[in-house]
Specification:
Number of strands: 11
CATH superfamily: Glycosidases
Protein name: Sucrose phosphorylase
Organism: Escherichia coli
CATH topology: TIM Barrel
Helix content: 25-40%
Order of helices and strands: HHEHEHEEHEEEHEHEHEE
Number of helices: 8
CATH class: Alpha Beta
Strand order of the largest sheet: 1-2-3-8-9-11-10
InterPro entries: GH (IPR017853), GH13_cat_dom (IPR006047)
CATH architecture: Alpha-Beta Barrel
Number of domains: 1
Length: about 300
């Protein structure tokens, strides 16, 4: 398994993923194995029924939404729904939760990690891994704008004169957004979805390590299913469509191998934006099964 991980890293990064980076990754995986003790169901079947909800949809006078939902689920829904997909419950700034400010926290107005872990004691949990972009209000992005060491390459700066006409656009908004840096220079950053959602730079090994940390956190907190949001856009190559590129597929396979190493049985579900026939063909080649409105399962 470790050899498969290093093979994918070599294919994606070549020599830029150094021995130091690899040791950091190995240390993270070994630590995660000690934390992740919950056994996953080996296979899904027709008895697996998923409820999809936001964490703040259930209200009561004396409890926050998550503990309120826990009570409601336990009393009314547990016999019907075996799985609960909690749509982004992290602090966020826009796009209904899909512009994440802090991947590692639960939005305080909804509840706390303890509430989610309690829900996981009576259901199987799915979390969203918003892996393509994060909020312009996040500390990572603030550190980037302030040019703090370690964050220099976290986001994607592009010369605005670059020909990006081939890039697939999911929204009719500017692809590049100008931001002022601490030294008063202006950088035009890649923003696939909005000027509040800054695309992460997976060419940087440090970004990969940081996002693996997020993924391992979710597994440790009880996620048995992980949905990769907007995953098709992860890798950028000017002059191409920048969607579903080969290195994007390699990163997903890398994440699959990492998960198999620390939490076997966890299901990865990818949000895919392709014609249905292509979704089915690619699923047969690489995945377990297609899932829900053009989701794909690895």
């Amino acid at each position: 398994m470790k050899q498969k991980i290093t093979d994918y890293l070599d294919e994606i990064y070549g020599g830029t993923f150094t021995a130091t980076h690899l040791q950091k990754l190995v240390t993270r995986l070994e630590s995660a194995k000690r934390l992740i003790t919950q056994r996953r169901k080996k296979h899904w079947d027709e008895s697996d029924v998923v409820l999809i909800t936001y964490a703040d949809q259930f209200h009561s006078n004396d409890l926050k939404p998550l503990p309120t939902f826990n009570q409601f689920y336990h009393q009314w829904l547990q016999s019907i729904f075996s799985h609960v997909h909690l749509l982004p419950f992290y602090p966020w700034s826009s796009d209904d939760g899909f512009s994440v400010i802090d991947y590692h926290q639960v939005a305080s107005e909804a509840g706390e990690w303890q509430d989610i872990q309690q829900l996981g004691e009576c259901s199987h949990l799915m979390f969203d891994f918003v892996c393509n972009h994060m909020s312009a209000k996040s500390e990572w992005f603030k550190n980037y704008l302030q040019q703090h060491p370690g964050f220099e390459d976290f986001f994607i700066a592009v010369d605005p004169q670059t020909d990006l006409s081939a890039v697939t656009r999911p929204r009719a908004l500017p692809l590049l957004t100008p931001f002022q840096m601490r030294d008063h220079s202006t950088r035009h950053l890649w923003t696939t979805f909005s000027d509040d959602q800054i695309d992460l730079n997976y060419r940087s090994p440090e970004v990969l390590l940081a996002m693996v940390d997020v993924l391992l956190c979710y597994l440790a907190k009880g996620a048995e299913y992980v949905r990769l949001d907007a995953v098709g856009f992860m890798w950028k190559e000017p002059g191409t469509s920048c969607i579903h590129l080969e290195k994007t597929h390699l990163i997903i396979k890398l994440l699959r191998s990492i998960i198999d190493n620390v939490a076997p049985g966890t299901v990865i579900i990818t949000e895919t934006n392709v014609p249905h026939k292509d979704n089915i063909v690619d699923s047969i080649c690489q995945c377990n099964t297609p899932f829900n409105y053009l989701f794909r399962c690895f």
